[in-house]
Amino acid sequence: MINPTVDELAEHTSIKQACDLLGRARGSHYRAKKPRVHGPAMRRPTPPNALTDAEQAAVLAELTSERFVDKAIAQTWATLLDEGTYLCSMSTMYRILRANGAAGERRRQATHPPRKKPELLATKPGQIWSWDITKLRGPGRGVWFQLYVVLDIFSRYVVGWTLQNGEDSQIATTMLEEAMGVHGIPEAVHADRGTSMTSKPVAQLLLDLGVDRSHSRPRVSNDNPFSEAAFKTLKYAPVFPDSFGSLADARAFCEAFFTYYNHEHRHSGIGLHTPASVHHGTATQIRAHRQATLDAASAAHPERFGNRRPQAPKLPKAAWINQPSPEALIQTA
After folding, report:
1. Model pLDDT, residue 37
2. In principle, which of 4, 122, 145, 320 could form an S-S bond with 128, CB 3.0–4.6 Å?
């Protein structure tokens, strides 16, 4: 069994890490170690109006006869009733079939294999991009503008955006192509499964450039966290309006916002640096300057800091979409 192997590995790590490495569910591991002990089930007393064994056998014979074996219970019940025969209720027919192992779905059912969870790891700017489309309210009811945004997941830098009246795969292709012309070609581009994201023009562009495509699983918003977080920062900004008077007004607002976002917004996920400083490689120098300022403040007033030396926020070593395996993280350390 796998339980002894999990216990042996857990002596060097933990139960959780051992189960993750061996592909064992923790719940199954704990249940196998302490199985539940169940007493004998209480037998339900037979109601006085229940069918006799002979009557149940007659119902089962009718339901499994050549005439009704391929028909639904409702069809069988109604046909017999039209002929002046009532054997029992439809629910009783179902119970008799279940008791004899003859109930179940007989039609062919569509089966879909589970979608593979995307796992993307970036250790420097320019490796992994993420993009998405969101709606901005226009001047009238039912009028929406489509905002396309593509960003670098390591630096959070917005490498490209465009605002249009509608969603179109060719617009997305042009935006990605222009962004790659300025910032270089990434190793992979991640997006959800919208029509533009999975369109043939976008797929062909990435294929021609040798860029890996990655897509979120259906109805799993956590598979595209960086784009979702960027849109939240945009729409929760105090200056974000309820609606825009025109496409030109919306574009002017986005131009000002993304300039601020890239060059002034201190992002908590990258050590409170701006995306531009991380993307262009100046964040290390800025962190050293921050540390010098903190050291000077500590030397001037050591009583204000206790026994701990103040530390500037650290820069991230990696960014990912869905945490990769421990082996991949060890290789990047």
Report:
1. 63
2. 122
